Amino acid sequence: MCAPHIVRVAHDQAVAHTTRRGLFGAAGLAALAFTAAPAAARSGSVVDLTHTLTPQLPMWPGSPSFVAVPVAWHAAGGFAQQALALWEHTGTHIDAPLHRTPGGASVDRLAAEDLVAPLIVIDISARAATDADTTLTLADIDDFEARHGRIPPRAFVALHSGWEQRLPIAAAFVNLDPGGTPHAPGFDARAAEFLVTQRDIVGAGVDTLSLDHASSREFGAHTAVLGAGRYGVEMLANLGAVPPVGATVVVGAPKHAGGTGGPCRVLALL
Description:
- The protein contains six helices and 13 strands.
- The protein is α/β, with parallel strands linked by helices.
- The chain has a domain at 93-269: Glucose Oxidase, domain 1 (3-Layer(bba) Sandwich).
- Helix 5 packs parallel to helix 6 (220-226).
- The protein is globular, with a radius of gyration of 19 Å.
């Protein structure tokens, strides 16, 4: 095991490095392993909707980066091991109701059957390409259902904004304005409320850092989804590789007592 102060020092050094270069530096940023919009996957395949955790992965402003510190080696004892330091809401991660609602369900209390659901993907990427503050609206839901049919009960609805194209430069993904406010697409609060109350979804997901558009200070989408006892998943990957309807999502949520969320492995089964 690694002494706690060693992990803390490594964590602080990584945070300082990321703060200086990851969020605000426009030049010399380390590019993440990234590919352009993937081709649609074939039927019967599995699409990984999860970003790999690295210290370079963008974080919500003010949150420390992921850190992995080697603490055991094959050459000394026969086994390798790392100590991990991370905030619950790091990388592709789940938001439990407790994240927004006092007394809400923690991640260990989420029903297992709700973590496997029909996957609905609503694409607003064309609009998001020119409007960083755009949201998925009631009109988008109406248009989606006109083309693909009614969203079934107990589905998981994901917003595809195409935001992951910005990942090679962390500062572009976080997208802070000169005043330090982030800008990225999300769910309109009324649309989120509709999906919960009128379509009975199990959860909602985004390919950005927040269920709400990033400049929101009311967090209405978080309140609508988490306040109703449903869950959210933020920073999904590869939504462009799955169809609007017909896939099943599997959310490999963590299960630690009292957790407000945590990194998860999310898979789409076609």
